[in-house]
Design brief:
By secondary structure, the protein is an alpha/beta fold. 32% of the residues lie in helices and 13% in strands. It has a domain of 119 residues: Rossmann fold, CATH 3.40.50. It contains 6 helices and 6 strands, in the order ββαβαβαβαβαα. α1 packs antiparallel against α5 and α2 crosses α5. It is globular. It binds iron/sulfur cluster.
Length: 195
């Protein structure tokens, strides 16, 4: 019979090389000290602990399930905590066909999220209405909320979703802690009627 310990790391296994750690942000260091910018440290923490809120209405949501499952494992990016409470999440992932009726609901979910928040539009439907060029389908979620990254495809493969997620991580890591207070950002929100 196969020994049980065969299924777990043997005691002598060296897994230290298999544990990924993030690189330190750019800065200046010496013996016993390291200095960097506050924005870089905050960005480093934020980008590696994004909490996604999946807003999945149709087939693209199935790709998201695959992205979260063991093979692709979005948890590797610090995002295993998928939340369905807008107040606790900072990344809105919109996946699927959004009808015009659903538009106000999506917008309300976005408004309930605390700043800083980011939006990933996954799939042709969320980005542009996709093949549903009809009277009832929103022709892109950026008609009701600002979008940070678009992932094309119908549906996009999990690799594409992960790539879009990593582009969001880039934005989060480089964002200044003051960006949300800038006139430019306020103007962006006000163009969507958001105060
Ligand atoms: S983009 Fe394609 S796969 Fe995704 S929700 Fe639309 S029809 Fe479905």
């Amino acid at each position: 019979m196969r020994p049980v310990r065969f299924n777990i790391h043997p005691k002598e296994a060296n897994i230290s090389s298999a544990i990924a750690t993030v690189d330190a942000p750019p800065g200046f260091g010496g013996e016993g000290f390291f200095t960097t910018k506050l924005s870089d440290v905050v960005g480093l923490a934020r980008k590696n602990s994004l909490w996604p809120l999946p807003f999945a209405t149709s087939c693209c949501g199935i790709e998201f399930m695959a992205t979260m499952a063991s093979h692709y494992d979005l948890a590797r990016f610090g995002s295993e905590r998928v939340g369905f409470s807008p107040r606790q999440c900072d990344l809105l992932m919109v996946m699927g066909t959004i009808s015009k009726k659903m538009g106000p609901v999506l917008r309300q979910v976005y408004l309930q999220m605390a700043e800083p928040r980011w939006v990933l539009s996954v799939g042709a439907c969320a980005c542009s209405g996709g093949i549903f060029d009809t009277y009832s389908v929103l022709q892109g979620i950026d008609q009701v909320i600002p979008v940070d990254v678009y992932v094309p495809g119908c549906p996009p493969r999990p690799e594409a979703i992960i790539d879009g997620f990593m582009r969001i991580q880039d934005l989060v890591g480089q964002e200044s802690v003051r960006r949300r207070n800038t006139d430019q950002y306020k103007a962006l929100l006000s163009s969507y009627g958001i105060e």
